[in-house]
Design goal:
heterodimer, A: 316 residues, mainly alpha, two-stranded antiparallel ribbon, B: 263 residues, alpha/beta, Rossmann fold, 6-stranded mixed beta sheet, 4-stranded antiparallel beta sheet, 10 helices, 41% helix
Chain lengths: 316, 263
Amino acid sequence: MTVHRFTSKPYMVVIALATLVLLLPLVLPSAFYLRIAALVFINALAVIGLNLLMGFAGQVSLGHAGFFGIGAYAVTLGPAYLGLPVWASLIGGAVFSALLAFIVGQPILKLRGYYLAVATLGLGLLISMVFTNEADITGGPNGMEVPRLVVFGWRAYGSQTWYWISGVSLVIGAWIAVNLITSPTGRAFRAIHDSETAARVLGIDVPRYKLLVFVMSAVYAAIAGSYFSLFDGFVTPDTTGFIRSIEFVVMAVLGGLGSILGSITGAAILVILPQVLTVFHEYEHIMLGLIMIVFMIFLPGGIVPSLAQRFRRRTA
Amino acid sequence: MNALLTIENLGIAFGGLKALEGINLNVARGDIFAIIGPNGAGKTTLFNLVSGLYPPKSGRITLDGEDVTGLPPHQLARRGLSRTFQNLQIFFRMSVVENVMVGRHLHENRNVFAHLFGLPSVGRQNRTTHESALELLSIVGLADAAERPAGALSYGALKRLEVARALATEPKILLLDEPAAGCNPVETEEIDAVIKKIAARGVTVVLVEHDMRLVMKISNRIHVLDQGRTLAEGNADAVRSNPAVVAAYLGVKGKTELGLAVR
């Protein structure tokens, strides 16, 4: 046997992604496109985390915008009320999300399927409601201004800077996800997805691994959320709302559950397509809906896995 | 007698229905121990209790001298008990070899931080796990199918895959739930050979099985259940000649089958 397929193949995705991040600025004509690319990367980071939970471990979450929102608000609330530097607030947001996922995850991850979906939906709504209603602290629906990220006296500012920050973070996020998937921990996640009973009998502590992947996906979402509001310079409760949770799930499913490349593709399509479809003016949303339906009909396993399967069949 | 698994006065009820009551049995080290009985006798329920999937209502289970009553399955796996399933529980999104690799979980380094950062030790360990999984696959005759998706295997092959996966945990005792059910005669022969190989490796085997010919041929002790209670226990000859067993369980058709098995 040569190098093992299960270790070599996934790393190709990371290498391809790194190459893409490096070369893309050479072909993108203006800062506007860099801005779109940065948005794709930030969304993809959150979706990779969600994909670990849904695509690999098989546990659904309709509330991940809640963790995204915690990250988004952490970088403005931390400096404003606790006097923390922005970077420390970013880490604080991730830690807080992890703790919340750890505490809430214990009771709700006992639920399965639709019941887990509704419980996570409730969690997301609850977090969103706190940000909306605590107007004295968060500015309520009017939102808040977000300070600039400053690292060693250097101010992160503008599309190009955020292109590189989010691009490099995405490559690291994808690398960590691939490491995980190809490790014993990743095999435990995938085993839980296919048969919890068999996983338990083989010695896998199922509740522990479910909690682990839930916490990890919350951290991915929180970091992506922090980037999102730092990049935007402004944060409103919409950032953390139900629609965004659904968007994350759609990105993961459309691109392909269980595929890291799929998460990035899904994020790219859902960020770029609405920009392209503005030419249809008032029919924009109808077109977006139609395109998504057509994708799911013809590529039911998600874009990347379905195309990969077709390609294999043709070459076989 | 050196009992590896001892069950004392075990019982469970589902909504008032006593599925099992007052079960006592001893499985000695090195046994091939069969549990037989008509449909609904409680054989699979007994397995589910012993493997920790259900908590028993009454009674005690002792594994290798330690009281393990009510322990969850993954704790039992740690103590050397593994099982297969009558209704297959295969990881269908994985390749054949990956299914067996999951079985190595307990023998792998489970430090999540090492896994997150893909330390070189993780790669080395993956290779070791892969190799031992291939070795186990060759025992059950599936080495050639290692890299195929699990879903591409035939029913009989999937049954053997479950055996290889359970063996990967390095059990002291292995529970096989109807290993030959739904298998054709050729596949049954293969399973028979695999069970003998497992026993030869020093693993104690407990099996639930309907195929009388297989049971009589390979097991050195047979426990007969009927309607949740023990009907008889003994070696093949004793069970075969026990009138209660013949009457209550085997019936007329069973007698013919037994006749075939004796020959």
